[in-house]
Design a protein that fits this description.
With 335 residues, the chain is α/β, with parallel strands linked by helices. The chain has 2 domains: 2-115 and 219-320, 3-Layer(aba) Sandwich (D-Maltodextrin-Binding Protein, domain 2); 118-212, Periplasmic binding protein-like II (D-Maltodextrin-Binding Protein, domain 2), CATH 3.40.190.10. 39% of the residues lie in helices and 16% in strands. The chain has 13 helices and 10 strands. It has helices at residues 2-16, 48-56, 58-61, 77-82, 93-101, 145-158, 174-180, 194-200, 227-232, 234-253, 255-265, 271-281, 298-310; strands at residues 33-38, 64-69, 88-91, 106-113, 118-123, 138-141, 166-169, 185-190, 205-209, 221-226. The strands form 2 sheets. The protein has a 5-stranded mixed β-sheet, with helices on both faces. It has a 5-stranded mixed β-sheet with strand order 7-6-8-5-9, with helices on both faces. Strand 6, helix 6 and strand 7 (166-169) form a beta-alpha-beta unit. The chain is globular, with a radius of gyration of 20 Å.
């Protein structure tokens, strides 16, 4: 705990000393520093800006030789990051807080997806258009503790007895379990991916989004690095994040071209699904108002963290301190 507090104290001093920065960093002449980033799962539309930045040379122009790794298990990226095996990891806001609860010195430095993508998805014959209609139904999920807490929160918010709903762990087989009729609805499918995939299979779906039915909003996908890297190499992280921002801005300007680059890098992907998913996700790739790409709302992080505390998903309030920072985004921090 003393080491953790010391690291947080130093990090707080570094970030507190940052003034506003109007221009992005330029790389050192002739630089091409190796930088490894691990995805949260298989390449898909959520990562379109990463592959667009690679294709456009945005990372190269920022003096970085970026290598993308795909995990064999979605639970490993933050562990490998904390162990120093990769330089950055794409993960989820709740996973960042859980890792910090376990003592890992990791910090989110930018939000890729500003809103929750996790949803309750059902097929039209079940007529589940609101949480009230989950009473007496079978809801499948991946067995993740905070997904159980989502369901509990949603049911309580709707006045539905938790005991009236049967929760079934279907692992990663969300769509197959739904199509087979094993479950009536699935919690954990993304409204920008599985729901679109089902629609392209000519299935009529109903989608209930987490943040509209009682679960506090959160950043679905975030860029995470070690706190020590922010302290020792803030310029490297700043260049990576700001080059990534250019990749997402380019994807917004030309979604079709960006999807072509994504599919070229991962040929097994369905171009039609990826393009529809990218177009659906574009609004939540970017923050509202005048904030730079990657902006994370501190009050939102705190509210979500308080929710995790209240559901005993985490137990240490200090986990919330310094869990995210905007200081490395364009126009923020120092040069």
């Amino acid at each position: 705990m003393k080491r953790r507090t010391a690291v947080l104290a130093v990090l707080s001093l570094v970030l507190a000393g940052c003034g506003e920065k109007k221009n992005t960093l330029a790389p050192s002449p002739g630089s091409g520093q190796s930088f490894t980033v691990m995805l949260d799962w298989f390449p898909n539309a959520d990562h379109v800006g990463i592959y667009q930045a690679l294709a456009n040379g945005d990372f190269e122009n920022a003096g970085l030789d970026v290598h993308v790794q795909v995990p064999s298990d979605p639970s490993t990226p933050l562990r490998l990051l904390a162990a120093g095996k990769v330089d950055a990891a794409i993960s989820y806001e709740p996973e960042v807080l859980l890792a910090r609860q376990q003592g890992e010195q990791v910090v989110s430095v930018g939000a890729i997806v500003q809103k929750p993508l996790t949803s309750i998805v059902s097929l039209e014959p079940k007529h589940i258009t609101s949480p009230a209609q989950l009473r007496g139904k079978r809801v499948g999920d991946a067995g993740i503790p905070y997904q159980h807490a989502y369901l509990t929160t949603i049911l309580q918010h709707a006045g539905v007895p938790v005991s009236s709903v049967k929760e079934i762990n279907v692992g990663d087989n969300l769509v197959p379990a739904l199509l087979s009729g094993k479950i009536d609805a699935v919690l954990g499918a993304y409204w920008n991916y599985e729901a679109i995939q089902l629609a392209q299979m000519h299935k009529r779906t109903n989608v209930i989004r987490m943040d509209q039915v009682g679960v506090p909003s959160y950043n679905e996908l975030v860029v995470v690095v070690r706190a020590s890297t922010i302290i020792n190499h803030p310029d490297v992280i700043r260049r990576f994040v700001q080059a990534l921002a250019r990749g997402y801005e380019s994807a917004r300007a030309d979604p079709s071209g960006a999807v072509q680059n994504l599919v070229k890098a991962s040929p097994g992907l369905d171009p039609k699904l990826q393009l529809a998913s990218v177009k659906a996700t574009l609004p939540v790739f970017f923050p509202a108002g005048s904030h730079p790409w990657g902006w994370q709302d501190p009050s939102q992080w705190n509210a979500y963290g308080q929710w995790m505390l209240s559901h005993h998903l985490i137990s240490n309030p200090e986990v919330l301190i310094g869990a995210s920072t905007n200081e490395l985004l364009a126009g923020q921090g120092v040069g």
